[in-house]
Amino acid sequence: KDCLLIRNVCKTYANGVQALNNISLTIPPGMYGLLGPNGAGKSTLMRTLATLQEPDQGQIFLGETDVINQKEEVRRTLGYLPQEFGVYPKATAEELLDYFAVLKGFTNRAARKEVTEGLLKQTNLWDKRKQKLGGYSGGMRQRFGVAVALLGNPKLLIVDEPTAGLDPAERVRFLNLLSELSEQSVVILSTHIIEDVSELCTNLAIINKGTILLEAQTDKAVADI
Ligand code: ADP
Ligand code: ADP
Predict the structure, then answer these.
(1) What is the pTM assigned to this prediction?
(2) Which of 155, 156, 201, 219 fits a disulfide with 33 by CB distance 3.0 to 4.6 angstroms?
(3) How big is the CA angle at 206 (ends 8 and 75), to the nearest 5 degrees?
């Protein structure tokens, strides 16, 4: 299983905001929590890990793969659930997942059907597959986002502030799903909710104003927070 290594990553936006100030983290397999208040730099770091933006300097490695310079390779084994997952309200889950699977390169119809069926079952949406996404609850939409992010069996799953707007039952269900997935791959969860991290993540970092304040095993850190 691969670790994710982040070394001396910096990012300053065009408006002069220094969003990431020399970030270094070692993220082991399992579930990892990136905890910090609004504006701390979480989304900037998550988008950078997801190869959607480049840092001004620094290195990022997933196992042997250079995340900044081997983007295509990383993208093949990367899943990303953005903070606001836009869905097409008139499509059904089944239709849209099939469409994303085609984009991901599943050209064989039978193979695609097998993969999408497995993902809809894993995310507990199989019974709802013929419903339009516009009628989905927040939790169902987030689980659909996970199904999309899992296409291609990613080694790295990046989930940005996923529990905002979920009711308590949906939140627990969603976090348990992520926890199951973390047995197969690195799962990084960004959140401003301490319970998201303390309940499920084995390791955590706290970020504020673009700087890492603490990097620790959760069971050792929670008493101090
Ligand atoms: P530009 O290329 O004009 O410099 P920016 O990098 O400032 O653009 O912004 C890129 C995107 O990020 C835009 O969609 C913008 O709305 C958004 N954005 C700009 N400033 C902020 C901010 N402070 N926080 C979050 N998003 C921002
Ligand atoms: P978080 O996800 O922890 O809320 P962000 O990474 O979104 O933090 O933002 C970190 C800082 O960078 C904030 O001050 C935010 O306003 C700023 N920022 C984010 N995106 C942009 C952008 N595109 N252009 C300019 N400033 C941005």
Answers:
(1) 0.88
(2) 201
(3) 55
